Amino acid sequence: MPVFHCSAILFDLDGVLVDSTRSVERQYRRWSEENGLDPAKVLQISHGVRAVEVVHAIAPHLDAVEETRKIEQWEANDRDGVGIMPGAAELIKALPLDRWCVVTSGTRSLATARLLWAGIPIPSEFVTADDVQKGKPDPTPYLKGAALLGFDPEECLAIEDAPAGVKSARAAGIKVIALTSTFPANALQEADAIIARLGQIRASVTSSNGLEVIVS
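Given the sequence above, the corresponding structure tokens read:
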């Protein structure tokens, strides 16, 4: 039973706190078909990565800024099946508001909308695609998240569902629990622990005002 001691938890959003994977995939398929691209190739790299970087990688001939705006607007309008991940509400409730944040590859407007749809409190700090020049798997998003909360990366714990996010957190020096909501366990082997459900995580504030995170 792994036990982590940390000062703060940094959550990815889609596939971790919010069940939005089907919406994301629907809109990337739509975008792929509209532009004559192979949906399978697009989906292979899209999870956990900023949309602008997906467009650059798959369709460098297109206007990445305009295409990103289009994709994220489609996602924002697609609420079919979007909701809170099982166990997310209980885990968030166990944490002081200043001890957690969201580090997402989506834009701030999309992240805020999804948090509100899911009924998750808006954290005091969060990092979005709008806040970094380099997204996951670069360490910048998680380094920024730790800094915003006022902790060194080594004091933090990340919860992720995508290989790009796991790589980002690990490169930042942050321990990672990976959730198999989007990818199988064999794609998440760089994580420090791998779980099937958020309900396997129990977090509490210790007598020394740190966090103890138990994985069952």
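The helical segments are 21-34, 39-46, 51-58, 64-77, 88-93, 108-118, 140-149, 163-171. Try to locate this feature in the token string yourself.
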